[in-house]
Design brief:
single chain, alpha+beta, 135 residues, 2 domains, binds zinc ion
Length: 135
Amino acid sequence: MARVVVISFTDDAAAEQFCIQLHNIQEAEEPMLPEAYDLGAIAAAHGIVEALIAKPTLSCPHPFRNGTFKKTEVFGWYVHATKANGRPCFRPHPLVVQNFINNMLIASGNNLLPALLDKMRNGSTTSPVDPSNED
Ligand SMILES: [Zn+2]
């Protein structure tokens, strides 16, 4: 199991800088300590932790032709509840695990990170989303 942290930023530029800097630090071949300190400063100055979400990482390996599912109390995931090899595995369907973040984002529909990373790779310094162009 993993965790997803949702952080909102009071400043759009700070949010984008946080994403770019984290991406660059993780992609770097050498340690980037000053940038890592800046990252913490950006989060502390502009970030608000909105949610801490459990993310499944293990999925059910069983075929689902005759399976039943049960909703877990703590996380609200539908897990395989049919006994296989003597006991239920209590793991979500593989597609739930594989598409967890996309399924989360469908509800809000506004993941700006792919556009930001594309802009960064193309060398642009402007925001990926201009609010004046929104429909
Ligand atoms: Zn299973």
